Amino acid sequence: MAKLGINEKSLPAQMSWRDKLNLAKKHGFSFVEMSIDETDERIERLDWNKEQRFQLVRDVYETGIPIDTMMLSALRKYPLGSENPEIYAQAYSMCKKAIILAKDLGIRNIQIAGYDEYYGSKTVLTRENFIENLQRVVDYAAENQVMTSIETMDDTFINSIAKVKKIKKSVVSPWLQAYPDLGNISAWPENNPGEDLTEGLDSIIAIHVKDTLSVTQSTPGKFKNVPFGTGNVGFLGLFKTLRRLDYQGTFTIEMWSEKESDCINKIENAHDFIVDLLTKSGISIEV
């Protein structure tokens, strides 16, 4: 029995946390994924006081919908591999704060954005800095018993589970695993997503579900805001692969509909689209 969650950025931005949790519950989701993105408003959550943290814990308990995962996409702006010593240090500090916030809120898994550098140039040093800084993050996560996982990205640095596993050879810890994005691993022409899932199964603890348009020789692909069913992701085949492999982790629908007027319709349509394909693949969803 699999759990299907939804990321916070799919839900109406103006809603309180309690309302977001209730909305997710109403539409058949088992959990919500918190977003710590590049905006100051969400980065400030890392410095919440005890009462702010406890209020969200109360909301979770009273609604019955947990926040099982955290998406730390602020690392796009503050990458772990930065050559700038201040940003390098700030990325580590943010990860430490995220680990303690997760611990306080009962979040079990922090998704680490797999960028050595995003807005700046990639070099041999940015890769080495990423590995070095990630080791520090994972060690701190282990001390606090919080799982960290690298997402496969819209970026060639880590765009497959195979590349996550290569990083894991340098950062060896049970507290570092893979959080593949089905859309991202499907979009890159060098990937065979079914094989990537099969060979990477022992590292996968959670899966993002979104549609994408493939990268080609003439187009850069599209990694966000591709409505389900209009992209190139072979969801049914990938879900059947995961069913054959007896994957037991979670699935999280990822959209960026939080500021759109038809947000609720998009949530409903995404839920029904994915649940239908999961059911056809033989994967039962907890309701």
Automatic annotation (TrEMBL):
Superkingdom per UniProt: Bacteria
The UniProt record lists the keyword Isomerase: yes
Name of a matching Pfam family: AP_endonuc_2
Chain ranges passing through the membrane: none
Domain Xylose isomerase-like TIM barrel as annotated: residue spans: 22-262
Statement: the UniProt record of this protein carries the keyword Isomerase: yes
Annotated GO biological process: L-ascorbic acid metabolic process
InterPro entries in the record: L-Ru-5P_3-Epase (IPR004560), Sugar_Epim/Isomerase (IPR050417), Xyl_isomerase-like_sf (IPR036237), Xyl_isomerase-like_TIM-brl (IPR013022)
Protein keywords: Isomerase
GO MF, any single term: L-ribulose-5-phosphate 3-epimerase activity
PANTHER family for the chain: ISOMERASE, L-RIBULOSE-5-PHOSPHATE 3-EPIMERASE SGBU-RELATED
Protein name: L-ribulose-5-phosphate 3-epimerase
Protein's organism: Leuconostoc suionicum
